[in-house]
Amino acid sequence: MRPLVAAGRGVTIAGIGGCVPPSVVTNDDLAQVVETDDEWIRTRTGIRERRVADPETATSDLAEVAARRALEEAGVRPDQVDLIIVATVTPDMPFPSTACLLQDRLGAVRAAGFDLEAACSGFVYALAAGAQFIAAGLYDTVLVVGAETLSKILDWSDRRTCVLLGDGAGAAVLRPAPPGEGILGLYLGADGSGGDLLKQPAGGSRLPPSAETVARGLHFVQMNGREVFKFAVKTMGDAAQAALAQAGLGFDDVDLYVPHQANYRIIESSARRFDLPLERVVVNIDRYGNTSAASIPVALDEALSTGRIRAGQTVLLVAFGGGLTWGAAVVRWGYDRQAPRPLEMPGQRPRYGLPEWIRRQAAEGRARRDGRARLAAAAADPAASPAGAAPRPAGPGEPGALPGPPGRGAPPRAAGGGDAR
Ligand code: ACO
Questions:
Q1: Which of 78, 150, 278, 365 measures 20 to 30 Å from 60, CA to CA?
Q2: Are 270 and 318 in contact (CB under 8 A)?
C-alpha cells in the first residue's frame, strides 16, 4: 500500500478547537414532532440529545469559533496560516466556499482555501489532504476544519433521519512534526455505487432548486439506515487495519480510539472487533448525535479537555459516511491540554426546549406527506379524486408530485437550496 504521507517531513496536530451551538434538543423534545420515543432512540443509537443551530447561525459561524480555539492552542496567528480546508456537506452556500468565508473572518490573509466534501468522513479526508501540503514542503501551517449545520437539511417530520444528526464544528492545526510525534498512518476509501444510500438529492445540477423540488422535500437528507449500518461496520475495520498497518502498529498499540459518532452500536461493535476495551474508546454521541464532519474533531476536543489524550499516546481516528466514503488516521499525539476548554459558543450556555422553527418545519413536512399520500390515493382511484384536483404525473421514485409549492407561508427551505451541493 502506498503511504499517504510519503515525503520527508512528518506532520503533527498542533492544536484542536471545537464549538457547538447552545440549543439542546432532547429525545423527548423530538417525540413532540415525530412518532418516536426516548427509549427507541437511546437503545438504537445511544443518542440522548443533540445541539441545533439557531436559524441565523451558519456553518462558518461555528467553524470560526472552533478555528480560533485551535489556532490559540497551537500558538499560531491567523496570518501565519498557509491553507484552510473546510470539510462540510452544509456550507453556508454553494460558493464562495466556507473556507474562503472563514479565511476572511479569521484575517488569515495569506492562506489559500477550499472546501472538501466527504460527508461524515470529511475530517479524516481533510486531515489527509492538508497533511500532503506540509509533507511535500509546500506549506508549514494548515488549518483543517470539520463543520456542519445538518439541522438545516433535515426533514424534522422524518423520524428515520431527524433523530440522528446534530450541529457542531471542530478544527485542527497541522504543522511539521518534531521527531517522535505526528501522523503515522492514513487510509481513505470510497465507493460511489453506494451513493444512493445516503444523500441530499436536490439543490445541485441534477435537480436544481425549484418550487417542485422544495414541495417534494428533496432538499432534505435521505438515508437507508440499515444498509449504512452494515457498510459502516465493515469499512471501519478495513480502514483502521490499513492505517495501523501503514504505521507498523496493531490494535494493541492503540491508546485511544476516536470513532465517528454515528451510532453507539456501530462504535461498540467496531471496538469489539478491534479487541479494544471501552475505556479506550471516546464516545460523546449521547450529547451531540452525529455531527458528520465535525464529529471526530469535537470528540478530540473533549478528550483533550478531560485529559484522556496525552502527549505520547497513539490515537486511532476512524470515520465512514456518505459517498460512500471511509477513512482512518493513526496519530502519535504531541501535547497535553493544560486546562479544560469549553465547546460552547462564546458567552453562551446550553439552552433547552424544542425551537419553534423545528416545530413549524415538522408540521409543514407532515402536511407535505399527507398531501402526497392523498394524491397517490387519488391516482390509484381517480373516481375518488375531488373535481379539479387531478394529480400531475409522479416524479421518479415518488408516490405523487405536489401541485406547486406549499400554500401556507414560506416553504420549509429557501428555494435557493443554499446548503445543497
Ligand atoms: N423512532 C421510532 N421508530 C423508528 C424510528 C424512530 N426514530 N426510526 C425508524 N423507526 C422504525 C422504522 O420505521 C422501522 O419500523 P418498521 O419495521 O415498522 O418499518 C423500525 O423502527 C426499525 O427500523 P430499522 O431502520 O430497521 O432500525 P435499525 O435498528 O436499523 O435502526 C438506525 C435505525 C438507527 C438508523 C440504524 O440503522 C443506523 O444507525 N444506521 C446507520 C446510520 C448512520 O450511521 N448514518 C450515518 C451517516 S449520516 C450522514 O452522513 C449525514
A1: 365
A2: yes
Looking at the predicted structure, is the pLDDT value of residue 370 above 80?
yes
What is the residue type of 374?
R
Q: Which residues are catalytic?
A: 120, 260, 290
Q: Give the residues across from 220 on adjacent strands.
A: none
44 lines ligand 1 (CB under 6 A): yes
**Distance (Å) from CA 222 to ligand 1 centroid:** 12
**Which atom of ligand 1 has the smallest separation from the CA of 163?**
7
Cβ of 40 below 6 Å from ligand 1: yes
Chain-centroid distance of CA 389 in Å reads 41
Q: Ligand 1 centre from 257 Cα, in Å? A: 25
- Cis omega before residue 96 (within 30°)? yes
Q: How far apart are the first and last CA of the chain?
A: 32
Minimal-distance CA residue to ligand 1 atom 44: 262
pLDDT digits (tens, 9 = 90+) for 308-328: 999 999 999 999 999 999 999
Q: Which of 221, 226, 227 to mutate to test the pocket of ligand 1 (most atoms within 8 A of CB)?
A: 226
CA-to-CA separations, 74 to 47, 144, 311, 341, 392, in angstroms, rounded: 32, 13, 14, 14, 58
What is d(CA 226, CA 213) in angstroms, rounded to the nearest whole number? 26
CA distances from 250 to 244, 245, 255, 328 (A): 6, 7, 11, 14
Burial 174-208 (b: 16+ CB within 10 A, else e): bbbbeeebbbbbbbbbbeeebeebbbbbbbeeebe
Number of H helices, E strands in the chain: 12, 14
CA 226 / ligand 1 centre spacing (Å) = 7
Residue at grid coordinates 423545528: 358
The per-residue pLDDT for range 275-299, each reduced to its tens digit, is 999 999 999 999 999 999 999 999 9
**Is the bond preceding residue 30 a cis peptide, omega within 30 degrees?**
no
Ligand 1 pocket residue status of 119, Cβ below 6 Å: yes
C-alpha 228, offset from chain centre? 15
Q: Which atom of ligand 1 is nearest to the CA of 120?
A: 50
pLDDT digits (tens, 9 = 90+) for 316-369: 999 999 999 999 999 999 999 999 999 999 999 999 999 999 999 999 999 988
CA 352 distance to own-chain centroid: 22
